[in-house]
């Protein structure tokens, strides 16, 4: 920050009063002083670079302009990456975050869901041929899987890829209106190619969903190719700069070699060679799900930074009559709303770091054909994607509401953070559908344990425990709190398994039994995922020392206590927590709010978002919120002219006609 910047005195005081050094926490989050320095350098560089492009603030332009500006900013981003020789994925993510703060952009899937799944699914020969075209943007692509009629149930996809041995081509076809590909990001106007997921039919047999590389537009004129109908799906709840698209294929012929043939193949005569495991086709989705955990947690980190800084600057109402208006952050209710979001922001950040690390560890094994850890990776990434996007979307909305009226203005940066985060509850697998995959794995582990088989170490919590009551006392020992989450997850999983068994005994088939108990299964999978998040947050805190450890331990405790209190029935139902123990929790929660109050601003400062990423009049580092809000309003398009054409066209005639009807006298320009 510029040393000369005039900072709101309340924020200055907050920063002076912190009991720990936020800089140390920043170093912890970003991997040390050197990496932090690099992060700041990179983000500030592109924030300044974007300013020089002359693009307008996202919230002040139309959808078409947002789209155009996003293309312009992306070109600048890639040029900068190349000039700086950036290949590291964290550096890239940091640059993306600074150029597109809580904003989507048309090329979002170029790497995440075009190049990555292509690399996973294509043969070496195919990679040699197409990767250079993809990496150098000759091919701009997306992942076209969802159709109008099917997104969750992939076996129900209707698009067909029928092999014709006489020409050695596949014929891609959308046989019905519901089979039109619908939603893929960047498909409408930007992509000239895509990975299409379609039912592979050869020698009259359907072998299920497979991936094909399809060119959809001419590489020079960008016109759609013959047989292709493609376009933008129209305005959405958010993600306006993205041209999510539709695609209809009318018997489009592609060479046999455009089927991605690393795992399964079709020989020239039409013979099908099966993959080692048909789940490998789903690998691209697992990769993005782990990214989505990171995307959602960063959005909540941004929202909580905005809301806590603003609450420290905003003064309204008195606590003691006559003693002056207080910072709204001093209201217990404000702390009760915001501090759990702060805790969740850190919790999901650590969850994101660990699932990414797990993904990086396991994917080379999967690449080698060792699929032992695949079910666990799938269950954990699906559960965390759902848990984090729910938690963060809800949290962003809590932050927005906690900013009062100004939270409703786009100037706050919170509406765009919300619409962006809530989308993550649906894309890459609707959350209920995904968390049920986690439940499926839990049921499988229950069966394995019942049959005396080994389960992965993280599932050990399912083993019968000797202790059926908690040792929790007023000290709120971390181990006792973690044990409470473990007990709850185990009990709920066993209860769900038992209910499934009962349904089957009553005569339901496995599908019916699953559906009859799916509310319980979802609850068990959420409890398991929350246990995981509580654990990884605790593991991170346990590596910290001194005053940082002290404050982060309190934040962790707030996360744990808050989650117990908000699902108290789960912990009481079998008497694991006694009513006496429960009576400790709400006072402890209030004490934690008070304890964390002096460190709240520094805890968000430590997240280290530059103003360019917050993109918020309310969350600015210097706290000069009213100047920023006023400036934003002056830039409203409606203020470009004092008297609008719409006034002359609609308002004035309307007013005149109303007045004439009821008063039958002339309009005067003054009262
Ligand atoms: C502090 C840190 C600092 C760092 C700074 C960093 C800052 C930056 C911040 C963030 C970093 C990240 C930046 C990266 C940017 C990336 C951006 C990402 C943006 C995303 C944009 C959105 C794009 C959206 C794309 C899409 O939506 S694509 C479409 C997605 N569609 C789906 O997900 C469909 C969901 N449906 C399914 O997956 C399946 O149909 C099903 C629900 C799983 C059911 O399938 P089915 O075969 O019918 O299943 P079952 O019978 O139930 O199960 C069969 C069997 O298969 C197993 N299975 C299923 N899936 C998988 C899998 N994926 N992997 C492995 N195994 C799987 C399942 O478990 C069953 O197994 P068993 O039979 O053994 O039980
Ligand atoms: C912003 C955005 C971007 C997207 N980008 C892409 C993209 O790039 N590429 C792409 O291919 N797709 C994309 N999608 C599509 C997305 O992946 C799907 O919308 C998503 O997987 C959900 O599928 P659906 O729309 O069919 O929902 P549905 O499955 O129709 O869901 C409707 C309801 O039914 C419930 N339901 C469905 N099945 C079950 C079940 N088995 N058990 C219990 N409940 C069930 C769901 O929980 C939900 O409440 C995008 C979507 C959005 C919103």
TrEMBL record:
UniProt-annotated catalytic positions: 428 (proton acceptor)
Domain annotation Acyl-CoA oxidase C-alpha1: ranges: 282-443
Protein name in UniProt: Acyl-coenzyme A oxidase
Protein origin, superkingdom: Eukaryota
Pfam families assigned to the protein according to its UniProt record, in alphabetical order: ACOX (PF01756), ACOX_C_alpha1 (PF22924), Acyl-CoA_ox_N (PF14749)
KW Lipid metabolism (keyword) present: yes
Segments forming domain Acyl-coenzyme A oxidase N-terminal: 22-139
Any GO CC annotation of this UniProt entry: peroxisome
Keyword vocabulary terms for this entry: FAD, Fatty acid metabolism, Flavoprotein, Lipid metabolism, Oxidoreductase, Peroxisome
Pathway: Lipid metabolism; peroxisomal fatty acid beta-oxidation
